[in-house]
Amino acid sequence: MDIVFSIILTAAVVSLLWWRLGQSYRVQASHAEADLKSMDERLENAQVEMEHHRDAVFDAMTDGILVCSLKGEILFWNSACRRMFQLPETLPDHLTLLEAIRLHEVQEVFQRTIEKGRMMGVHLKPRGAEALHLMLNAVLVHHSSGKPGSVLLNFHDLTQLKELENARRDFVANVSHELRTPLSMIKGFVETIMDHPKMEEETLMNFLGKVQKHSDRLALLVGDLLTISKLESSQATVNLHEVSLFEEVSRVMNDMERAARVKGVTLKIDIPDAIKVKADPGLLEQMIINLVDNAIKYGSTDGCVEVRGSFNGNGQICVSVKDDGPGIPPEALDRIFERFFRVDKARSRAQGGTGLGLSIVKHIAQTLGGRVWVESQLGKGTTFFFTLILSEESHSQPQLMLEETRSAAKV
Q: 159-236 has which CATH code?
């Protein structure tokens, strides 16, 4: 009986120990499972965070980035690539490179990259995007095992560089042309004088007068080129002072009175005489001279040129120079401030212009913290506008100065 009881008691103890051991294992297994689940969640969150940072980095790039599988299916593209090729916001499943970017040149680069490992410096000009110039670089990306896994394509936008190169080429061509004309005339007259040293005095003086005329034109062109070069490179010396706008405009109008009288043009000023602006007197004078000179040259005979000033409510004054000439065609308004652009080339050269005056005006306005624009109607004249920064005193009392406006003062 004692033996049976001992066996039963032993079995009960073993069963209890076994149950407690199993319970412990189950608790440990449950904890391990929870730890694994937590670890999976952390890994998943870390992967999502890494992908988010990756996308943020790639989307901040100006270069277009596109990644393809070895089968040609697109795995990723960034915002710049999407903008370049007008791709959708979301990436469709199993979309191929050729389906997304319908350029056989890109497909050829992709195939050759798989064969060679990389392709560098391939120039592209996508159809339908006339101004877009791209340089394509591609590289084969390997897994950690060393096996090739994908192809990364990098599209570098060269459009701005191409535009700058075209602008440089056009500028050199225009400068060469503008310099060649007076130089050829001077050379021709000098050679004629040298070939005929005993020509009549009247003819000689006529030839020398033409040499002087073209020499002056050449000097004016060189001076304008130096001015615009300094303004564009921010090398121009700018000394800002409080300047009386009315006095500056009046001084220019007095200087231009003779040219206006020859053409029968009336000059008027409509500017508050107490107004002061922050400006470089020399640059401001040059800007006003260019605009008033243009208005006299291209305005109507026996017409009127008026310079007005009005407050625009944001600490600036808007100055306008208006003529009553034939006006500027609408298609030319966007280009009027380009270097060497002329609406009427024959008339401009006859008037003695260099084609740089309005470009200089634009750069001076920007240098002084303002801007310039133009409005025109054919047959109704043209008005150029530019803004200047008011001095602190003028900025604080605009209404007072408006009441003291010197209206339509004839020069």
A: 1.10.287.130
